[in-house]
Amino acid sequence: MSWEIVIGLETHAQLSTRSKIFSGAATAFGAAPNTQACGVDIALPGTLPVLNRGAVERAIRFALAVGGELNRTSVFARKNYFYPDLPKGYQISQYEAPIVAGGALTILAGGAEKVVRLTRAHLEEDAGKSLHEDFHGASGIDLNRAGTPLLEIVSEPDMRSAEEAVAYARTLHALVRWIEICDGNMQEGSFRCDANVSVRRPGAPLGTRCEIKNLNSFRFLERAIEHEARRQIEILEAGGRIDQETRLYDPERDETRSLRSKEEAHDYRYFPDPDLLPLAVSEQWIAEIRSRMPELPAARRARFESRYKLSPQVAAQVTASRDKADFFERSLMKIDTETYPEAPRDLANVTVGELTSQMNERGLEFSQSPVSPEQIGRVQALVLDGTISGKIAKDVRKAMWEGEGDPDAIVARRGLRQISDAGALEAIVAEVLAANPRSVEEFRAGKEKALNALVGQVMKATKGKANPQQVNDLLKGKLSG
Ligand code: ADP
Ligand code: MG
User: Is 380 in the pocket of ligand 1 (CB under 6 A)?
Assistant: First the structure.
C-alpha cells in the first residue's frame, strides 16, 4: 500500500520597512554587529515598544492580495522563552487574534492548478543572531536583527508532495515581492520556510508531523521534505512510530537531524502584551490601501491569456515577476497588435526565453535591463514590417546586449536589411540552382525536402538576409519552369 505525504508550511517574510517593528533602529542588512540595535531592541529596562505603521500596512496589503479576512482588531502577545539572542526573554508576536485570518493561494504544480488554503498571517518581531565562528571558543550575539518586522504566513496542511510545497513557496515568494512588502532575498534570510511534514495511508487521519526549520532555498525545501518523508516511511514500515519534533536540514549531508522535541503552545505562556494596545485598523485605511494595490499576478496571468492569447505556461512565466510582466507589456507598446495579433506571442517567447537568460546571466532584474523594452519591441516591429528577418532579429538583439545601441542604427550600420529586391535574389537563386544539381534533381523526382536544402543555401549565400517566403516562391517558380 502506498503512502501519502502531507505538508503545511510556515513562512517568515521579512517586511521591507526601513526601521524595526517596535523601534526606530534601521533594518538594513550587513551592518557591523550590534550597530543597529537601540534600547528597545536590547531590552533596556523602562523602554517601550511603538508599533511601526509601515509593517501593519504591509500586512494589510497581504490580506488584500490573498483574500484573507482582516481582523479589525488584533492583539500582540508575548511568547516567552529563554535564548541568548532574545534579550527580553519573550518575542512579541500575535497569537489568538492575528491580523490576517484565512485566504488562499493558487499554485501551478504538475501542469494543474491547485488551491492551497492559508490558516493565518501574523505580525511579529525577529530575534537576534548567535555567531558561533571566530570567538576563541565562545559565541557572539548580534542584535541587529532583533526587532526586524516579520509576517509569518501559515498554510493549511494542503500540499501532497515536495513539488507542490515548492510551487507554493515560489508563488508566495513572487507574491510578496509583487505587492512590495518583502524583498524576497533568501540569501539574506528575508524569506524562509519551516516545513511541517507527515505521512499517512491515503484516507487515514493526519499522521504525526515533524517540523523542519529555516529552509532558505527552494532546493533545500524540496530535498528536506523528500528526505524527511522517506525517513518517516522507513520508521513506520519497520513498525516504529514518529515522535513529534523539530528538525534541522543539513544540506551538506542531505539529511534532517533532531533539534529538540516539539514544544507545545502552552509551554510559551502566551499572554497579551501590556505594553501594546490592541491594534485597530480602520475601514478608511483599508480602503485607501486597497485603492493603491497593483493588478495581482493571477489576474494579470488570466488577462495575458485572454488578451494576448498566451498559453497558460507562457502566461505564468511572463508573470513570474511584476518587473518581467511590465517589461513584456511595454515592449508591446511599439507594435500594432490589431494588425499583428500573433506578435504578443512572439514577444512573450522572446521574454521568457532569450531575455530571461540574459537577465539571469547578468544577475539583473528586468527593471535593471541595459536594453529597454521599447528597443526590444522595435526589433519585433522591424521583423513585422519586413525590414529584417526573424533570424536577423536575434543578431540585432545580441548586438544590443553588447551595447551597440538602437536597433535601427544596428541594422543600418551592419547592413542587415532583408533582401526583398527580386532582381538581386533571382541572381543568387540562379547561382544556387546551378551549384546544386543533385538537389534540383531530387526535387523534380518528387522529394519535397530537397527544396529546404536549396532555401538553406540561398539563406547562407545572403547571410540570412533574404526574405525566406520570397526565396521559396522564387525557387518553386524556377524549378517548375
Ligand atoms: P505550530 O505553531 O505548533 O508549529 P500549528 O498547529 O499552527 O503549529 O501548525 C503549523 C503548521 O503545521 C501549519 O502549516 C499546518 O498546516 C501544519 N500541520 C499541522 N498538522 C500537520 C500534519 N499532521 N502534517 C503536516 N503538516 C501539518
Ligand atoms: Mg511551527
Answer: no
